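Quick board copy: two proteins, each given as sequence then tokens.
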Amino acid sequence: MKHVALGLTILTLLGGCAATTDVARLQTTPATTPLQVYDPGQPRPLPPMRANSDMVEDLLELGFFMESGRPIPQFSRFEGPVKVVTRGEATPLSQADLDRLLARLRNEAGIDITRAPGNAVAPDENVVTVEFVPRRLMRAAVPGAACFVVPNVANWEEFVANRRSPLIDWTRVSLRRSAAVFVPADTTPQEIRDCLHEEVAQALGPLNDLYRLTDSVFNDDNFQTTLTGFDMLALRVWHAPELRPGMTREEVAARLPTIFNRLNPAGRRSGGPSAGLTPREWVLAIEQALSSENGLAARREGAMRALDLARAQGWGGPRLALSLMLTARLAPRDRGDAGLMALLTAAEIYRQLPGGEVHVAHLDMHLAVQALATSQFETVLELTDRARPMAERTENAAFLASLGFIRAEALEQLGQGERADRLRLDSMAAARYGFGSDAAARARLDEIARLTGAAIRVASR
């Protein structure tokens, strides 16, 4: 279930980097011009790239533990077709994103899941309810989650009435008959879309999140924002006919290698050493570093503790890379060189990992921010050009718009104002989707302009 975490797709390195400016670089279009709408195109998820034996281990840990570390004693899933109903104030864009997700689940995961016509379901039908709820109500009920999924309720009122009841305890569920996904109605289109992907996937499949999975949305670091090839394979395996609700972990483990080999022949090869369970202490340290509820000092302390624990465990993969990256991003100004080295070391680790190219692209964006602040404008163009394909492929509109705005500022400083203006306008559709509004997009432009200390005029509509 998705926690409120420091948005890794957002330019948190911008604050206080340079002199301020009062206005953003944006030449707006006339009021009569139709607004462009963000269109991610056909889905192109990164394919599963790890050995099947490694993914067996991942799926067992995803499926038989809760995020809290509580064990789940039995395998659980829906049996048969699943209907989806919606409740609450959903925008047309959110409805379209939900339909796009359901189409992917049918086509890529082979799950029989469709909308219930008129939101009407028969008593014997399996149902997933997607309810759009005001954020203030969600935070009052579950302060630590941006969105979440619970079993055996049909709406928000039933959830609130049963918050402390065994009825909504996932560890007691074997045969799933109903689940409710609760999504904030009053946030950005991208956050709603991201919540739909993770929470509907958990309603249908495993319930845990693992920070070591660089190629999955079942990971609270939020680098992957839409379901990946690994995620779709995991859901297809979860719904394989060889598995049945109520099976023990050992029974599922005995069948998974055959299922993975049947569904993913390319993964029939030797895997790496076992990743092993992640100590809860490290997870708590990472959550402290990521949490926007904590002050900078507490977040920095969490990142340093996570890095110390990662090194003590002898890790060399994604958990060490995430620890390094957070330490670098939260480093004080007087440790800039050490922070940069940690960032580069994290990038080298991610380059060796399946799905890690997405993380490298994000790190390239942060390096581009630093290059822009130090007037290395050609380097900015190189880094943003390198990162853009992953932003497009992962359908991360906030990331894509940020890259466009950073690149446009570099072009402006190189004397290519016309190209810069065109790029800013071309990036606005993604910015509105990713940040929520024209005002939020202009705020991001202001942040980026501050890096060069330039005072710019905004043309009125």
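And the next:
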Amino acid sequence: MWGKPWEWLGSPREAIRLQKELVGSIELKPLEKPVRFIAGFDCAFIKREEGEFIVAGGVVWDSLTNKIVSQTTVVEKVQFPYIPGLLAFREMPAITKLSLHLEKPDLIMVDGHGIAHPRRAGIAVHIGIWAGIPTIGVAKKKLVGTYEMPCEEKGCQTFLYDRSEKIGIVLRSRTGVKPIFVSPGNLINLSQAIDVTLKSCLKYRLPEPTRLAHHLVSLKRKEINV
């Protein structure tokens, strides 16, 4: 256990106000220590007669041995509507509960965005500020911004811009596959976020922490739907 549950009972308007306030607490700075243990978080949603449910999965991956040191899932009813840009308020209550059953990591990777967000407050920002741990957002799709497509080779990258501001990197994590969108959340800078992400991409498009969390969520969804 290294965190505590986080709940949100406010309105969408209040959520937007909170995001604007969070931005002032973001620290994009060099890592203070080497990264070995990386937590990965992923979520999926299931609609049932009794309502909509979230399945959240978390793993802590040892980047030195390429092994999972702890993992867990949480299933609970969703309390916040789907609104673009406010994903954190749907996922954070479940994700923070995962920390109660995971080893404390050196860094957190989230299937979502960090500062590559209209208000610079993606879910990786929320989690990074809540946990006080370096956090990276690794998303499969762009939420905001413009970019040039990187070359086809693994490691090729281009900047993601919102107007003239650099808010992330479009990274080719594997040769010949679609790029991923990487942005820092908190307590790490952009160049180190790219370095950690690329080193965590072993055989697949997604880095191991979020890939393993996604696999865990998929298994839990199948179990629930049996």
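Board note added afterward: The first strand starts at residue 37 and ends at 48.
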